[in-house]
Specification:
Shape: globular
Largest sheet: 4 strands, mixed
Order of helices and strands: EHEHEEEEHHEEHHHEHEEHEHHH
Number of domains: 2
Low-confidence stretches: none
Strand content: 15-25%
Helix content: 25-40%
Length: 316
């Protein structure tokens, strides 16, 4: 019997390097699923090495919804659109990025759901073995992919929050903190963000020869960029840009940007976490963009709640 992985386990599996080579399953037969110790013992689970137990497993019958030390069963009776699973092996399947997005939305806050969407649509995967905590890869999905799936997915727990999160997802982030930085400053105030115009993430800027000599290449990437105002944010610290070498590269990139008439504001996780520093950067952004900052105690509380929710979702 096959094993269908979903929820938090699927989120972890989707960070594995080999996921990009998987193809959508041709069919999903949830009515026959492995969930018992005996059934699992017959499966080759080597691809899941390093994935913590218990595994989140999808089953279609209450009789199969057994929960024990190695498995946490989730009842899934709603019909799922074609393409809901990726095939790891003929007997092992994992929820697709779109299904994982919907399922996790049932447990995450709205802000955390948006951050997960940004991660699935970003150019990175979490990687504990990497010095920066992330590994570069092609996006697993686009916002349009997620929207198309959600349009065809009904009666699945999490679908309502997934629908609310979709319009707020910013694609192309190159690290978790780039995504969080963009969300803190650009989500609408009703969701706790400062409401600045939507930026471009991981923007590629071509350099003139004098600027190329500073960085040794013909272009740079800017974490969060408002091209109309030639102003951007560059994140430094954990997840990613964490080593001394990469911090030196960030400084060189800042100098190269200045030669192109672009101002970059460097910031760290401490400046995102601290309300006073976060507001100071917001005032600078507002000045450059000709925007206003939301005022009032209610907004400040909502903004702090947003930051806390996003930062607590970071891997430790």
């Amino acid at each position: 019997m096959p094993l269908f992985l979903g929820h938090a386990t699927a989120e972890l599996v989707l960070d594995k390097p080999w996921v990009e080579s998987l193809s959508p399953a041709a069919d999903q037969m949830l009515e026959h699923c492995a969930a018992s110790r005996i059934e699992l013992s017959r499966l080759d689970l080597q691809p899941l090495e390093g994935t913590p137990l218990p595994y989140d497993v999808l089953v279609s019958s209450p009789q199969e919804a057994r929960t024990w030390g190695g498995v946490r069963c989730h009842l899934c009776r709603a019909p799922l659109p074609l393409g809901s699973f990726l095939e790891i092996s003929p007997e092992l399947f994992v929820a697709s990025p779109a299904l994982t997005f919907v399922q996790r939305a049932a447990k995450l806050s709205l802000a955390q759901t948006v951050a997960l969407g940004a991660r699935l649509c970003g150019t990175f995967a979490l990687d504990r073995d990497s010095g920066s905590g992330v590994r570069e890869r092609a996006p697993l999905a686009t916002p349009d992919d997620l929207q198309l799936y959600v349009n065809h997915c009904q009666h699945v727990s999490g679908i309502k929050r997934a629908r609310r999160a979709l319009p707020l997802i910013l694609p192309n982030a190159a690290s978790p903190m780039e995504a969080i930085t963009a969300l803190v400053y650009c989500l609408p105030p009703r969701h706790g963000g400062f409401g600045f115009p939507v930026p471009q993430l991981n923007y590629e800027q071509t350099l003139r020869p004098s600027a190329q000599r500073l960085v040794g290449k013909d272009c740079i990437r800017i974490d969060v960029y408002w091209s109309d105002h030639q102003f951007g944010l560059e994140y430094q610290g954990k997840f990613a840009h964490s080593s001394h070498t990469s911090i030196a590269a960030d400084i060189a990139r800042q100098l190269a940007a200045e030669q192109m008439g672009i101002e970059l504001q460097m910031l760290t996780i401490e400046q995102i976490r601290d309300q006073g520093q976060r507001l100071a950067i917001a005032r600078k952004i507002a000045c450059r963009l000709g925007a206003q900052i939301p005022a009032g105690r209610t907004f400040l509380v909502a903004n702090q709640r947003l930051v806390d929710e996003l930062l607590c979702s970071l891997p430790t």
